[in-house]
Design goal:
alpha/beta, 12 helices, 302 residues, binds magnesium ion, nine-stranded parallel sheet, TIM Barrel, 13% strand, 42% helix
């Protein structure tokens, strides 16, 4: 297969996946300012919020207001997570142009997380996909637990591949393979991507890795070797792992950028500017900076 890509598209998930899983909260104005600052760093994709029922995720109850108030830059896409038709209607009314839907490769995780089976989760999102396609709204599909489940343990790559193929057939433009509990290791990550790429074009795959066990960068590197060129990450490693309280969440964008730029892989993102935003948001949330690079840059080592 292909070697390292020359350009990687970073999907910044801090404002959604990050803030959703933080104990601390910031107000709507601070969220808007945070996203507006991110928009100026050269990022191509910023996942801004979720049209989820506020009873489930009170942190994101201001979804519409956030989306309406941010300054949307030309050339930057601002996906919004949509769990069901209700969320889709809200997204549509808000003028959202890119959405993300989700399911999980584990039956137990689906049931605990969304109270339905995998098949039912697909039934729930297919009308959303149908409408989104007819309106030229771009859709990314998340598959959680792609490298392991907190309840079921190992997940066979072929199960993820079959699910990815279903999402692809339903019309997802991009499929993000999520290591929700950050448990995978590099060769597993690689065999997952190889297996999924047999059913879905590699260009349509994104990797969404968590750093819970400190494996995220190694796993990303392994997948880059196969030619994967879309990587999800969160500034300052915002977010956490509900299944491992206190553990780190999404891989930090600063750490991914440092590695990619050191390999002469282009991202278009200004690392120095992004790390300042990471520092500021951590101060606002009253939390530690989970980015190694963010901390190193802060201490002025280089
Ligand atoms: Mg995540």
């Amino acid at each position: 297969m292909a070697g390292y890509p020359t350009h990687v598209r970073i999907v910044e998930v801090g404002p959604r996946d990050g803030l959703q899983n933080e104990a601390g909260q910031i107000d709507t104005a601070a969220k808007v300012a945070f996203i507006d600052r991110l928009s100026q760093t050269g990022l191509e994709v910023i996942e801004v919020t979720s049209m989820v029922n506020p009873q489930w995720v009170p942190q994101l109850a201001d979804a519409e207001e956030v989306y309406r108030r941010i300054h949307r830059h030309q050339g930057v896409s601002y996906p919004v997570l949509v769990p069901n038709m209700e969320g889709w209607k809200r997204a549509l009314a808000t003028g959202v142009q890119t959405i993300a839907v989700f399911t999980a490769a584990s039956e137990t995780f689906n049931r605990k997380n969304t109270h339905c089976s995998i098949a039912e989760s697909l039934e729930r999102i297919s009308p959303v996909l149908e409408q989104a396609r007819s309106m030229n709204v771009t859709v990314r599909g998340y598959i959680s637990c792609a490298l392991g489940c907190p309840y079921e343990g190992d997940i066979e790559p072929h199960r993820v591949a079959d699910l990815a193929a279903r999402l692809n057939r339903l019309g997802c433009d991009e499929i993000a393979l999520g290591d929700t509990i950050g448990i995978g290791t590099p060769l597993q990550a690689k065999s997952l991507v190889k297996s999924v790429a047999e059913q879905v074009p590699l260009e349509r795959l994104a990797i969404h890795f968590h750093d819970t066990y400190g494996q995220a960068l190694a796993n990303i590197l392994a997948c880059l070797e196969l030619g994967v060129s879309v990587v999800d990450s969160s500034v300052a490693g915002l977010g956490g792992c509900p299944y491992a309280p206190g553990a780190s969440g999404n891989v930090a964008t600063e750490d991914v950028l440092y590695m990619l730029h050191g390999m002469n892989i282009h991202t278009g993102v200004d690392l120095a500017a992004l790390s300042k935003i990471g520092r500021a948001i951590c101060a606002q949330l009253g939390r530690d900076n989970h980015s190694h690079v963010g901390r190193a840059l802060m201490s002025g080592k280089r």
